Queue: 2 jobs
Job 1
Amino acid sequence: MFFFWRTLKGSDVCCVISLGPLAHGWQHVVGPSGMQAVCKRYASGMQAVCKRYASGMQAVCNRYASGMQSLCKRYENAMRTRGRMLRRLGAGTNGQVRRSASSVSYGYLNLTVSDKIMPYVEGLKKKVIYVSSSKDCKAYVQEIQKGVQAGKINCIGLDVEGYKIGRNGTVSIIQVCTQDVYLFDLYKCDNSYLFVKCLKELLEDRRVIKITHDCREDCSILFNQYSICLNKTFDTQVAFNLLLKETKKDLYQISYDDLLYKCLLLNNKHKIYFHKMISLDQKIYLKRPIAKELIQYAIQDVIYLKPLMWSLVDRLLRVCKDGEAGREPFGEDGEARSNPFGEENPRSIKNGDDVMSEGAHSNISEHKTNIIKRVTRLSERYINYQFLNTHVKNEKELQKGMTLDGMVVSCNNLNLYVKLNLSRRGVITNCMRNDFEIGDVVKCVILGFCNNDYIKLGLCDPSLCAVKREEGR
């Protein structure tokens, strides 16, 4: 602190600088010359601080300028890449790119598979076609139908992606896999009526086998919202349960990824990342443009359905042969033998597209045809799931004592879990495991409601219980 005062004579000015409590009250008196020295030191110190501040700001500005320059270069490179991609789609006579919101996008997918499953795969390079206009949809559906008429296409892989796929959900895209992969954008198409009309002709064509995996919710949303009734469906989950039943194993609902690994030795663990994305944002498939990762996820769900069907058919055929010879086709661990393709050469099914063509079974044995027909007939139970509980228009009106139909999806020693074609599932407690199997439809009554989106159910009187079971003989 500085203290100024004037002496009694009024001539001398002194300055007292307090050194604070550490000086024990001691003071030092400085004259005018000392004050001038203090000011000079203060001025020089401030000048040094200003120089340092100026140099620091200059360094910050230089870094900012270099960073902005780098960003500008990256943006310029990105725009050049985008321009090249747009030019590939075609340019008009005036040099402008002819592209609209309903244009078709193309791409290619290169598959990498092992030599053991190569006979099941039709080419390693597939063309991916993204369609969002009714005009293009009609053209590509007609192209597929021409292949059907010519006998080149008899099987297609089918899957649906969207928000809460089921009776009251929203369809985003429908994936169809032939020799190429088609992604039909039903959510953002220019004319949904014409779009659905074209797809309906293809999906209801009885000449075409639709290969799916657990098609119950897909069938429900297509039927209840778009009046599309699937038929002639080969469900790979149904085929696997038939394989378990023939080998006297416990039935369970296997996931698509696990089935791919069992039959085709394909590891789809990278899809965990996509499952995480969808779990964080369930409406992510309704956003446009669709993320590249989600398109890849959608493609992965259909490109292996046809090879998976042929692998399951071969396994079922081998089980039939081994059963006739009195041999056990599976080991103690439930896995197939070391030869995953059985005794016959899988190359015999390379031209399996002719499996269901009229009078043209030269490329496939009659036994395989019968197996496919049997699985197709058993898969009708999954299709009929779309009719369950259609009398329930508003789920808020559900009350205790109401009767519902449920399709068995899992059973253990204590509980029986059923799908109701509603947003909630049902659980029946204290139910004997051997009474029912997966795919049966049981009549039950509402006993209460759980906090985890399950409905507590009880079986109706056995005389009123409608169990629809098809032996598939």
Job 2
Amino acid sequence: MAAAAIHQFAECITCHAWSPDHSMVAFCPNNNEVHIYKFITDKWEKLHVLSKHDQIVSGIDWGRSSNKIVTVSHDRNSYVWTQEGHDWVPTLVILKLNRAALCVQWSPKENKFAVGSGAKSVCICYYEQDNNWWISKVVRKKHGSSVTSVAWHPNNIFLATTSTDGKCRVFSTFIKGVDTRGSQASTSTDWKFGEQIAQLDLSSMWAFGVRWSPSGKTLAYAGHNSMVYFIDDVETSPASQNLALRDLPLRDILFLSERMVIGVGFDCNPMIFSADETGLWSFIRYLDERKVTTSTSRASQLSEALGKLYGQSKQATSSDSVEPSKPRGGAHENCITCIVPLRKGNDTVVKRFSTSGLDGKIVVWDLENHMDITK
């Protein structure tokens, strides 16, 4: 089993992120708070509770270089948290949104961060040194619905988004004074801020979990129709592959390398995808070793549902007499909503990552001895 550690932190976890040295984890227990835990003497201890938000925290990212935490919430605000001594000091970032903020991610250089929202827009935020505050520039009039995920290209300028309008888009986030125009052959700095580079109309359903490969050559995202889409050469001549799944849809995606992807979602079990020498992507297997057959799973779920209904419908029967729900047999017991890489230094190949979900667990997966997993 590739699951190296399973930690039950809460009843439900919305999102999570790790400190640069992976000694601390920050997560939202499905409320307006962010809890920071550290592993001390064989157990996890709560060190901090960040409680500036008024509604559910929907996104967290912890900068590897800056050690700053950025959070966004349904209250339409964002905070950048800076550690000063033992305390975390918040700085409010006004996003200019009239709907909830849904996701957030630091740029590779950590001089900007992107926020997806329910206002059909994306906010690109950067720090203005002269005035000592964070500025938010909004990309408007492009999305037809809520922005569910954002992903930065390695060049620190291109930003990919997915939306509940079923489309994946790529924008330029070039900001004068923040980004520099390089002398390289790349045309990434030739685009103006907010200019749409590509629009991918591959999914007829909601789209989630967009990610770039380590080199930025390949883009991948998931559709709520149990499809995964892989696109090469997005900027010049996009070439797509559509991979249909037999199981439930994915919610998030992570590139382990240029040719290996992990997908997580409603099936509660990480899925491994790999590309062959010709670049053809295919599903390999589930990462967690358990996987009951469809008929057995449906039968057990039906029996459990009938048992609960029968037990709870009797007025004189205590709820304690109803047999509790049996575990699914895997690391996660409910939908996995978040996957975070645990990189060492400048490694381009991800060998460890963590997942969190609606079951309140954070699971650390170690593939150090499983990198031949596609064979």
